[in-house]
Amino acid sequence: MYNEIDLDKIDIHAEPPIEEPVRQYYFMAKCHQWVKDFEQKNGRSPKACVVNMGCQMNARDSEKLQGILCRIGYAEMESEDADFVIYNTCTVRENANLKVYGRLGVLHGYKKKNPDMKIALCGCMMQEPSVVEKLKKSYRFIDLIFGTHNIFKFAELLWTALDSERMVIDIWKDTDQIVEDLPVERKYPFKSGVNIMFGCNNFCSYCIVPYVRGRERSRAPEDILQEIRNLVADGIVEIMLLGQNVNSYGKNLAVPMSFAELLKEIEKIEGLKRIRFMTSHPKDLSDELIQVMADSQKICRHLHLPLQSGSTTVLKAMNRKYTKEQYIRLAEKIRSAVPDIALTTDIIVGFPGETEADFQETLDVVRRVRYDSAFTFIYSRRTGTPAASMEDQIPEDVVKDRFERLLKEVQDISKNMAERFTGTDQEVLVEESNRQMKGYMTGRLSNNHVVHFPGDTSMIGKILRAHLDECRGFYYMGSLQQTQNI
Ligand code: SAH
Ligand code: SF4
Ligand code: F3S
Questions:
Q1: What is the helix (H) or strand (E) element at residue 346, kind and residue range?
Q2: Cα 92 to ligand 3 centroid, rounded to whole Å
Q3: Of the candidates 353, 279, 283, which has an alpha carbon nearest to the alpha carbon of residue 321?
Q4: Is any ligand 1 atom within 6 A of the Cβ of residue 348?
Q5: Cα separation of the two ends of the chain
Q6: What's the pLDDT band for 1 if we cut at 50, 70, 90?
């Protein structure tokens, strides 16, 4: 119903309403009037550029920012040479932060040429007080700064920034609020992320996410199911359920519900064809969930199961709450219940105190589990986390050497694993035209592998059957067997 609200009919001279999300629609209306005045003065619409710098959860937040900007009347723009630029930042590793400071220099250049330009920063990095201090001191050209907990207030904050010349800063320490029914502008017409929970309670000792995203909060199942039904009515065939630890979904609801139960409800939605989710924490992955995956027609044959380290000693210091053996047993259980599943993971090398023997344990798990792919990270010291003050931080050259060895192992295994599907027929969701090969389309298999095949843009958003002719390491070349939507 909120999608149908006509901003022109809202009385912007009245007092702002108190309740959400009505209050935000009031501020959208105020910004919309500002846009109309801009158009009159300049003979064109103002342009906005939303830059996403973080994980899939941040990407979904960026779609919400974009949705509000579109409703207000901004034209979407890829280039940062726009009238309004917003960076949705990440702070999970130090280099994510450094990237932001580097790019701000370029933005300042644009602003000198276009003094009316407004620059905003939001997202996880803004939840760190030291970052905001630095921006206040040395980056005075920024117009608006807000954090993760009050992102639903974007329309109101944007209005405040448009209406003033000062630097507007609004950061909340935490929240228990979940505001529903704000506009969203989706990147793809056929697939979409869906938040099922926010925050994280796990406090892995290296990780900053619980500090910048706050405590775990699950959305009500009815809200999730209704959002998915609306998405399906709008043409979406694949959804990705998002949360830092989806396996602990529902624990804090008034009527508790498990993630497996939620999946069973989602499976019933007619017209929805594929269900993905991330991320799963191994400590909470239940037998019930494995069974639901095995029985499901819609849950994709892919599970991202972050290992972090293969050494039980390091896992303990990381506060991961599982051992090497428990992890391996879990992976075996999943592979035997769902034989064609692709397993992927995240691994950190160089955690404080990690010895060569610990590292060998990680390599051992990699060789035994045989991941279809793995994201490998060099440990990054995050101020405020317990690991940052641990003794025995590992020297850079030792970490680099381990990282190279791990990467090689992981890549050799992934190539080998991908070969097992060569020659099979698979369902593929066609996503886009191939940018390098003219006349080719690119699609995604249920197991998250990518395949390129001859085709045309009329196929985008359809699920077709393709033969995987050849494996080229991390992707396949294929040919369509059936051009009818499955
Ligand atoms: N909630 C997810 C992960 C979110 S962060 C989970 O628990 O799996 C994504 C990945 O970044 C993590 O899995 C971890 O491998 C990596 N990461 C987090 N903090 C890090 C740090 N301080 N240094 C290096 N990598 C880190
Ligand atoms: Fe970070 Fe651990 Fe939470 Fe994942 S589960 S977000 S790694 S604290
Ligand atoms: Fe980064 Fe925040 Fe996601 S720190 S990984 S964008 S939750």
A1: strand 342-349
A2: 6
A3: 283
A4: yes
A5: 31
A6: low
* Per-residue pLDDT band at 178 (split at 50, 70, 90): confident
C-beta 59 within 6 A of ligand 3 = no
CA-nearest residue for atom 2, ligand 1, is 244
- Sheet of 373-378, strands arranged across: 302-304, 342-349, 373-378
Q: Residue whose CA is closest, atom 1 of ligand 2?
A: 207
Q: What share of the chain is helix, strand, coil (3-state, %, to 5)?
A: 40, 20, 40
Q: How many CA atoms lie within 13 A of 156 on its CB side?
A: 18
Digit-coded pLDDT (tens) for 437-474: 999 999 999 999 999 999 999 999 999 999 999 999 88
Closest CA to 309 of 355, 278, 277: 355
Q: Which helix (H) or strand (E) segment is 16 a member of?
A: none
**Rounded to the nearest whole angstrom, what is the distance from the C-alpha of residue 376 to the centroid of ligand 1?**
10
Let me know: does 381 contact 387? Beta carbons within 8 Å: yes
Tell how far the Cα of 117 is from the centroid of ligand 1, in angstroms: 35
Q: How confident is the model at residue 163 (pLDDT cuts 50, 70, 90)?
A: very high
Q: How many CB atoms are located within 10 Å of the residue 391 CB? A: 6
Q: Whose CA is nearest to atom 4 of ligand 2?
A: 244
Q: Which of 90, 92, 278 has the most ligand 1 atoms within 8 A of CB, as the residue to mutate?
A: 92
- Cβ–Cβ < 8 Å for 196, 223: no
Q: Are strands 47-52 and 84-89 parallel, antiparallel or unpaired?
A: parallel
Tell me how far the alpha carbon of residue 153 lies from the centroid of ligand 1, in angstroms.
28
Asked if the peptide bond before residue 279 counts as cis, ω within 30 degrees of 0, the response is yes
- Other Cβ atoms within 10 Å of 160 Cβ, number: 17
Residue with tokens 């959400």: 20
Mean pLDDT, rounded, of the chain: 95
244 in contact with ligand 1, CB cutoff 6 A: yes
User: Model confidence at 481, in pLDDT bands (50, 70, 90)?
Assistant: confident
A 10 A CB-CB count for 426 gives 22
Stretch 148-177: mean pLDDT, rounded? 94
- Cα 42 from Cα 56, distance rounded (Å): 36
From 62, 92, 202, the mutation candidate for ligand 3 (largest count of ligand atoms within 8 A of CB) is 92
Q: 243 by DSSP, 3-state: which?
A: coil
Atom nearest to 308 CA in ligand 2:
7
> How far apart are alpha carbons 185 and 177 in whole angstroms?
22
Q: Is the pTM of this model over 0.90?
A: yes
